[in-house]
Amino acid sequence: MIQNILIVDDSATDRNFLEQLLRKAGYGVSTALNGSLALQQVQQSRPDAILMDVNMPEMDGFAATRKLKSDERTKSIPVYFVTGKNQKADMAWAQMLGARGYVTKPYSEAQILELFKG
């Protein structure tokens, strides 16, 4: 069951919106500004799921997800991409990396909450 979600996005606007939405829906939330900080955060807090942007400084979401999925301790954490990249190649690459879902910006509140149903 998903209770705690890590939001990884370099945009304060997107991060804050997602944090407010998920907290209002009853989830615990932590945040990171890029992929490398997300990897550190995952080691400390072990989220139940991750919302990952793609384009970020230092380490992008694809590289961070590749590292998460190659580590025995973190490979089972579901990663959902929430990104402005809407090319089929990006979506295919996310799927190859093991992403559980892919939502493109702009998105609706319902699209985000739907990721964690079921």
Task: Note down, in words, how this protein is organized.
This protein has 118 residues and is α/β, with parallel strands linked by helices. It has 5 helices and 5 strands, in the order E-H-E-H-E-H-E-H-E-H. The chain has a single domain, classed as 3-Layer(aba) Sandwich (Rossmann fold). Strands 2-1-3-4-5 form a 5-stranded parallel sheet, with helices on both faces. Helix 2 (35-45) runs parallel beside helix 3. The protein is globular.
Keywords:
118 residues, Rossmann fold, 5-stranded parallel sheet, 5 strands
Q: Which CATH first-tier class would you pick?
A: Alpha Beta
- CATH topology type: Rossmann fold
The structural class is alpha/beta
Rg: 13 Å
From the spread of the alpha carbons, the general shape counts as globular
Regions with pLDDT < 50 over 5+ consecutive residues?
Answer: none
Give me the CATH architecture, please.
3-Layer(aba) Sandwich
In what order do the strands lie side by side in the largest sheet? 2-1-3-4-5
Mean pLDDT over the residues: 96
User: What is the name of the CATH superfamily?
Assistant: Response regulator
Count of β-strands: 5
Q: Assign a percent range to the helix content.
A: 40-55%
Strand content: 15-25%
- Could you describe the largest sheet, including whether it forms a barrel? 5 strands, parallel
Can you count the helices? 5
Number of domains: 1
Distance between the termini: 9 Å
